[in-house]
Fold each of these.
Amino acid sequence: MKYDRQVDSALTELAELFLARHGHAPALLSRAPGRLEILGNHTDYNEGTVLSVAINRAARIAAAPNPEAKDGMVCRLYDIKGRSAREFRLDDLDNCRHGDWSNYIKGLIVEFNLQGFKVPAFDALVTGDVPLSAGMSSSAALEMAMCVILNNLSDARLTWLELAKIGQSCENNYVGAHTGLLDQISSLKGKAGQLIYSDFRSFEVENVPMPTGTVFVVANSKIKHNLTNEYNERREACEEAARILGVKALRDVSPEMLEHRKGELREVVYRRAKHVVGEIARVAAGQIALATGDLALFGKLMTESHESSRKNFENSCPEIDMLVEIGQTIPGFLGARISGGGFGGISVHLVQASAAERYCEALGAEYHRQTGIDSQPMVLAAADGATLWEY
Ligand code: GLA
């Protein structure tokens, strides 16, 4: 698809900055959104189901091949927002620098190479407005924005699922976070005005309309999370539960079966499994609530999900609990929960659209009164998934 300057002013500006920096126009532009997880917490790597939404906050990239750059092996990246430049050689990618943003790009190239696709040297300018370390998947947005560009530059022609898996392998193998596929799939398969229902066993993905008359409000606890250690630990507990219960994944365990065989599991492992099994059941109930327009039930499921995160999975934190509690006292509230890996970041609230503005004000004011932190509550809209344009 050819880029039209009217599509996205931030992307048009990025293309102009690319021209100013490199003396030639970019060949490709891309945009890939962050996501909110709405129901189904830590179910993806348990082969379960999730309802998520791609948001109108995204990573944006302008890129062009640059075979002239040194011996055709050097890539140059520049992050406009962080004002940080990175340069690396395509034959020297085994140097993951802990915590560095370029890992999310270098790790993708490694994965393309492992699959037999050669990525040519390129220059890229990167920008984005997905809050970092907040639980909105800024890293997956960057990966998917880059993945669609690398897919084109290397002529790999991978499908969306293959691209999502490349992003996941980058996280698992290069960055060292043993995350599932939720963030990448959400970033690729979003649709304006729609939620995304994903099944992580069959990889069936479909869009479902947003519940009528509602919006999502996001409030940032400003507690920064670091997924790697605690996330990996939670994942190991789920795998231990599945192993002991003799199933392929927790997807195969019903709430009844778990209660029946509770005694075989360590107490903490039981609670981790209870969260995941409960979440999978809540996604199924949520699907029905959406189909029948039962907003109250859908909201209740979200709040129950949070309760289970707090008690069973222990991936919330006092600040997020506070945001969820405050929400319940404000008119327009339907439900609220932690979103994503956890241990900080954002809370997501389902709110009556007509009450959203005042809800944001009241939530922000009360959280600030209790903590001194500005959580910047805002309404986010459901947006389209990753898009690639020729410039
Ligand atoms: C993070 C991971 C996802 C998923 C969520 C929790 O966002 O990247 O794969 O596991 O946490 O649901």
Amino acid sequence: YDSAADSTSAQTLSLLSELRRAVEQGELRLFLQPKVAFDDGRLLGAEALLRWQHPQRGMVPPLDFIPFAEQTGFVRRLTLWVFEEAARTWRTLPVLGGTALRLSVNLSTHDLLDTELPERLVALLQRHGVPAHAFCLEITESAIMDDPQRAHATLERLRTAGFKLSIDDFGTGYSSLAYLKRLPVDELKIDKSFVIGMERDADDAKIVRSTIDLAHNLGLTVVAEGVENAAIWNLLHRLDCNEGQGYHMSRPLPVPQFIDWALRWNDRTATGWGGLELLTSDRTASAEL
Ligand code: C2E
Ligand code: CA
Ligand code: CA
């Protein structure tokens, strides 16, 4: 008898039932973090990030429950919740400068191995009357490498359904370039661990630079996450990075605050892109949220 193993499985069960309750009782929250174009500063879309408003523990960050949900497979339920909520939200977002915003949703390994996922997502969108091109699906390199063949097949079907596809956390996995080249993806997202360090660490800066070149040579759009300050913004702009996401522009926000942020941001960029000035003045405001 192993009492340690027993207490862990008891904990697992209780966290799992708490997570079920979270879904059923409406404790999950959708946050949005802006994605901005480097060339003219326009807002292109946002990444949907999950939070758990726990009745006792307060706002629980995703890293405290998503890895667990991934181990148990419950993450598929969370993905559907996010997708559903994102579809509902998309219809309420302002259309700025004539183009609708695009929402990015994270998929896990379990989602990617689920052969029914593409149909399920398509049906969900139809129910909400939202087009697939309104969504970008972010898939980590490691999720793809778990079972490359099956992942590839799911990606092909998602692409055919009209979703934009992105490789997330790029640089942290072990995918070969030859393999990457064959994937039906549109976007590469450079992991924030390299971006945050690029100001001070010459190696990180080199990794970021070569990733941008690589992505462009493969005809992909490059997004940098972890744009924490004006210096990083500047460097990435010079390296021809396409889109940025980070605390410098805004932290992830609840939907109503995101809409306010988007309208204010659009007012300023529409009257002439003030570049870094603009970003710097916005920084204090977003840091408080
Ligand atoms: P991720 O997909 O790499 O998401 C980006 C994370 O970077 C977010 O953390 C975001 O808040 C953070 N971030 C953005 N800009 C900056 C910055 O300038 N500096 C720093 N230090 N961090 C920045 P968050 O929201 O805590 O999410 C953490 C991870 O949890 C996500 O990493 C993703 O792997 C997972 N996650 C969150 N929501 C979902 C979801 O709905 N489904 C799945 N499968 N995973 C999710
Ligand atoms: Ca992501
Ligand atoms: Ca990342």
Amino acid sequence: MKPPQMPLPKHVAIIMDGNGRWAKKRHLPREAGHYAGMGAVRETVRAACDLGLENLTLFAFSSENWKRPKTEVGALMGLFRAYFRSDMDELVERNVRMRIIGHRGRVAPDIQQMIQDSESRTAPNTGMNLTFAFDYGGQEEIAAAAQELARAAKDGRLDPETITPELFATRLFTSALPAPDLVIRTSGEHRLSNFLLWQSAYAELLFLDTHWPDFDRAALTAAMGQFTARERRFGALDTLDSGAVA
Ligand code: IPE
Ligand code: IPE
Ligand code: MG
């Protein structure tokens, strides 16, 4: 008997890796790879909207990416500014709600302002949730949530015994989103690099060799199709097996 097909994922999260390698292959500076990567972001967002995806989260800059040379960090920040300026109208038109998850306080004040403006401008939108992980680190996020709960316990506002995974998750940046059911990483590395560590506990992981600037509508459609062929168990048995032992 053919196993039942999984429904399409509700939340796809992507580690957009390989801009540098894409550029190197073409004898271009790394910045050219990042620029091309912005084109892939645009195309992926459009495709995700057209496919009716409810939640798309893109890892744009990690809390560890500050360790890169100043010129590269500067170029990346310039691209974020350009993206906010050029793409916000289209996101509004497409009824997309945009959010940023990450530290916020470490980026330049004008970018902080752009983030705030874009979030409030798209807040009334009811279509796809588009989230950029920007100056984001999963361990930092978990530590901040633990700090907040510890503070509440210390002040007598919280009984430590009531801390459950569900309560903990409400203190994460992603509290408004469902957990990702599919995490994709492009460009061949098989690691999470501190991305959505808590939230990805039961995500399906898909590692692609494609460098991020080459990722497109067809790649997203194929990835979502692959997801539907997987069997998720969440620690239990599949329906047939559990039927047999019941
Ligand atoms: C991903 O591409 C973009 C960011 C991390 C900002 P990389 O810049 O990591 O590209 P590679 O991994 O060096 O090819
Ligand atoms: C992860 O990629 C961060 C982003 C895609 C924004 P990196 O290229 O920074 O990860 P490592 O250094 O290969 O682990
Ligand atoms: Mg990389």
Amino acid sequence: MFRLVCVRCAKAYPPDEIIYHCTRCGHLLAVEYDLDAVTITRSAWEKRPLSVWRYRELLPVSVSPVTLNEGGTPLYHLTRIGEELGLPFLYAKHEGMNPTGSFKDRGMTVGVSMAIQLKKSSVACASTGNTSASLAAYAARAGIPAVVLLPAGKVALGKVAQALMHGAKVLSIRGNFDRALEMVHELCLTHGLYLLNSVNPFRLEGQKTIGFEAIDQLGEVPDRIVLPVGNAGNISAVYKGCVELEKLGFLERMPMMTGIQAEGSMPVVRAIREGLAEVEPEPHPETVATAIRIGAPVNAEKALAAIRKTGGTAESVTDDEILAMQRMLAQNEGIGVEPASAASVAGVKKLVENGSIDKDEKIVCVVTGHLLKDPETVIRQCASPLEIDADLPSLLSALQSSS
Ligand code: F0G
């Protein structure tokens, strides 16, 4: 059993109320379980396959889930990058290995299942790309229509391709993500579509399983979990999950929640650095990591609490640092991620260099989306393939000249 509770004033709402903000104070809502009634043991969990649904006792879904087999993503030991940074226990959880290539699938399997549970017949979101790709796929799986709003010209090619091919109604807004989110919110409130951005409390329930899986795969709680931050939903979700595990007695200590933003889009980092109670929105966010090109993160309040309560931190990285780490992950570790995802590992590099990270920490970086999401940014960084005549001497001479 669960109820919805305001994250600020704790006003409670019934589980089947379609509501995204507290009617008393306007803040976001979170799912609150009766943890005393949860009787699952860790060993029972461990007998199930690694997936979002391993943890179903801590999820709100009671209908048969709308699923594409999400979660169960690999946790890689970053041996070469770790050696270079002097971090022997550096890991990457590759969320790009989810069905549509990003962690959003964890949220959408739960969010779209809840749409069905709540008897909603259409869904919508605003997106920097990945949420729209994921929503389109899960809506197709559920057999219901989806509407997605994208910031025109600022969404990576692979993500638009996915949203279109999965049959969503795709609209490009002449404005940024923050404006698209305001618009879709209004559309949902006035026209009854079910909103599946991270203001939706159920979507974040799915995303918290990233932390559950990382802990299970590592066999212990990492000292630090590092995530790229855009709308700040994911870092808040992983923290919420850890709090639940702690309350259940499954967690001996909390990981330090650490958020990384791009320098041109860093309201959470500023708030942490300057000790602000709330973030000041960035009116013109800009970064090559378009997934996290967000100036007014709607989950910032929760993210600031997660970072502060766990003794974590927030750091910014430049576009050059992001792209350099994208190449390093690809070429030194064989791990292909999109730019926003590389921000988490680039952030760790910076935190090591400025002495904020202890070298024997066990660190899990969440790399959030697949390399193929944004092929244009990849192609811009790499030399074109050399075109040669179709004979062996040309091949050998090309190999010699490029070696
Ligand atoms: N990494 C990737 C690849 C993302 O797509 C996003 C968010 C984030 C990190 C940041 O996560 O917003 O929970 O802090 N993408 C959203 C979208 C906004 O529309 O796809 P967050």
